[in-house]
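testing teh design pipeline on a random one, pls ignore if ur not involved
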């Protein structure tokens, strides 16, 4: 059997900033075979870029993807408003759908926290870029205390946020808050998002503040360092910039830069969620019973 035939067949639905970067990452994978990038606008810059990268493309959206399939894995990098329809269309095909839009559908997966669950899930939700950056740290801290309040502020470069991201900011906030509540057991959660037009463009930054009366500085700080090391396995540009611990309070600032690929270093928001998506798909490809 040829090498290409042994690889897992995948398609990317959406040709925005996330979809194009994801396509580039998939092309460099030895386990995945990218067979289609599907958009909805034949004049889109993203589809043109994907074609220039050597990808097969279509402007026919989900209908064209369905005709071209079946695929082992489909990545939905479109937008939250249409994801439910995409899932309804693909559900009966048996394909594994990995959702990179901020919906609250599917099983929420953060690879370093509950990645082992992904093997049994047909419909996977990756929360948001901010969720993928914050939840590993917050989950680790919450294992050593009982948070009463969690606040997360994400700041990304304006140039790294495409049209779909901007349209889905309300869903982004709601979905990220819900996921943080689920992974930490904390009811009071506040998520805020900033898009910075600064020049030069700043890297993706996430600042987390946890209030917990029973917080112990030593174990909490060690938990942050351990969580960050695990995330770097699929997002090498993940860095903890500061950890400030006071009585009943810990603040953690992380920065994510894009490493390799075609996107600028400041687009760490794209890099971390796409790195998570790629990791899950490659793990699926390596499953003997697939």
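output:
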């Amino acid at each position: 059997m040829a090498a290409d035939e042994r690889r897992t067949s995948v398609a990317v639905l959406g040709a925005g900033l996330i979809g194009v970067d994801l396509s580039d990452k998939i092309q460099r994978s030895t386990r995945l075979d990218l067979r289609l990038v599907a958009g909805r606008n034949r004049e889109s810059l993203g589809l043109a870029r994907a074609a220039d990268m050597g990808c097969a493309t279509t402007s026919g959206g989900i209908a064209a993807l369905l005709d071209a399939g079946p695929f082992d894995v489909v990545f939905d990098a479109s937008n939250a408003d249409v994801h439910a329809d995409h899932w309804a269309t693909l559900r009966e095909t048996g394909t594994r759908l990995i959702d990179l839009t901020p919906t609250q559908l599917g099983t929420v997966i953060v690879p370093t926290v509950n990645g082992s669950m992904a093997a049994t899930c047909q419909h996977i939700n990756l929360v948001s870029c901010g969720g993928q950056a914050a939840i590993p740290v917050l989950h680790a801290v919450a294992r050593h205390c009982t948070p009463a309040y969690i606040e997360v502020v994400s700041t990304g470069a304006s140039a790294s946020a495409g049209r779909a991201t901007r349209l889905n900011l309300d869903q982004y906030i709601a979905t990220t808050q819900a996921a943080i509540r689920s992974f930490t057991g904390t009811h009071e959660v506040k998520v805020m998002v900033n898009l910075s037009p600064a020049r030069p463009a700043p890297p993706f930054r996430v600042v987390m503040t946890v209030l917990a009366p029973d917080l112990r500085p030593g174990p909490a700080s060690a938990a942050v360092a351990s969580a960050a090391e695990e995330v770097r396995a699929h997002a090498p540009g993940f860095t903890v910039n500061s950890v400030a611990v006071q009585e009943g309070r810990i603040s953690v600032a992380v920065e994510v830069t894009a490493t390799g690929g075609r996107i600028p270093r400041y687009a760490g928001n794209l890099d971390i969620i796409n790195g998570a998506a790629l990791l899950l798909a490659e793990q699926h490809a390596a499953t003997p019973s697939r």
